[in-house]
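Re-running the complex after MR caught last week's input typo. The corrected sequence lines follow. Everything else is unchanged.
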Amino acid sequence: MRAYILRRLAQSVLVIWAVTTIMFFMFRVMPADPTAILLERGLSDEARNALLEQWGLTGSLWDQYVAYLGNLLVGDFGSSFLYRKPVWEVLTPLIINTLWIAVPGLLLGAALGAAIGTAVGWARRGGKLERTGIFLATVIRGVPNFVIGIALLTVFSSTLGWFPGFGMGDPGQNVGFARYFTLDFLHHLALPLIAVIIYFMPENLLLMRSGVVENRTEDYIELVRAKGVSQGRVAWHAARNSMLPLITWLFPALAETIAGIVVIEIVFSWPGVGRELVLAVTRQDYPVAQAAFFLLAVMIVLANLAADLVYGKLDPRVVYK
Amino acid sequence: MTSTSLATPENRTASPATMQALATLNDRLAAKPAAHLRVEKLSIAYSTARGPFHAVDDVSFEVKPGTNLGLVGESGCGKSTVIKALIGLQPEGTKVSGQALLDGQEILGLSERALQDVRWTKISLITQSAMNSLDPVYCIGDQICEAIQAHESVSRATAWARAEEMFALVGLPASRLHDFPHQFSGGMRQRTVIAMALALNAGMLLADEPTTALDPIMQSQIMSRIRGIHEHMRRSMILVTHDIAVVAETCENTVVMYAGKVAEKGPTTDVLARPLHPYTMGLQNAFPRLPVKGQPRQALISIPGIVPNLLRPPPGCRFAGRCPFATERCHIEAPAVTAVGAQSAACHYIDRAPEFREAAARPETWRKLGAGA
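Corrected-run output:
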């Protein structure tokens, strides 16, 4: 078990190194000029070269790469070109903002999806619940997530006026860490959070449903029924076994969905890391973009590792070698 | 990693309180009488896209308390369908009619809730495919405890202690209760399923081809285990099998089913020594017997043909198409059940049975039919 985790960690480091390297060279071979965001057109080459030197964009690509890796190893992601602040300072508050909608959104989406999926899978085949459940899940899954966001905004913000339409708080409210504990913040959080839940739920629901449908006809379910336990308990056996494929999918999907939340952040003007990532790429703000991609890569790799470990906990047949 | 932490092999000795509770539970369970089952005119039709499939038609039999009834017939004759219906496990949409009185209580058509109380307390099941009958993600002990605790309000420790006793009864070491199904061989899983079926000492045991999935050596081990348990616990039992030799060794009474109908039934000795129905005769021929000294070696004779399609059952005797003695009448008119002493059979020519028996022992009787068909 321990040897397995160590080996997987070593592999993970390798994968992350590869992603970082590709990312580094990709940004540099793109025909663009990062100084364009700060310098007005026609400014002297001298000023421009001074900036490039300051940002470490002079010298051969190889030298730049070695310097970048060296800094990365000591946790230094550099300074943002635009904000002229260390990348960590730029990203940390944004990451926290994103986690506020991502973590509860994904957890609730997965839990609700699994619960409703079990109910739909356990319902009578061809019955009303099954048909409605599958229909709704498929439709929502097919709709692009910005449409979900816009629909929520139209109904609950514009028409009914129950929730604010954008941002994390009304002007003049607390800023800094204290703001997270205000009703105003929760009020702003509601719609984007619901959007994430609705966005993430259908796939969980459909996977869980097909698992339950498959498992409910297995011989072991028949024996559980024959034992005379409650209906709910029988359904639980089917659900418990259906979790195995769900978990395999869920963890990597979590990481990918965090990347997908960028759209929801933009629709709700939520100042999160996903939104910043898109902006950083268009601005040629290499350090921010590279750091954000690095974080995504780490998350996806760790999520895969977590999936494998959780799977072993859930399925006694899995052996780590 | 295992989800249980109750008893490791080292500290298996349960606490005195648990032992006390176990003794009380054991006494309560041991007091259950063997059940009496009377099945009357049981018909079962599966619903299919092409209409009802009459898997079982007008089947009646009785299991007296403490006796063992053998239900034999080739695959697709409705044996397992009868068993499933008795414990309420028929697929949704299946039409079940007739009566099944378990100690006087009608058990057909019960609600799911009412079935919960009957299942395992009064009637338990040894399944056909023990290989897949256990939930792969729970340890064996948990699955036995689940059955016990669903019906008896005892602590987990007590239920586990009872499970250990049941494991001893089927010859498995108690420490293996912590294992998961995939760590068990086929024979061990079958023993587990038997241990589970005995856990609440139900008055009626349904054994649905308990040895089909096993190799011949394991088959005979498991069968002698079942026989031993039957003699020891004196539960009423229905044993479904297609192995007529198993019935001969194990069961007091036999019901021979063919294409969803009872072809013949009666005390096993009578049915096997003097079969009245040509199907029983054919079935006997199809099983190997040990050669008897001084007698010619018996040839293995199979019955040509297959069971008719029960979406459109033939109007006459269902065996007519494969019967070497069938006449015009057999194809048109369904035979009534005729009793001869304790034995009975559904054949028009029951009075010619001795003559048929003689002919049926000759391979050419059946071969002619195969060539003609």
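None of the earlier attempt is carried over here. The mean pLDDT of chain A is 83. Chain A has one domain: 87-314.
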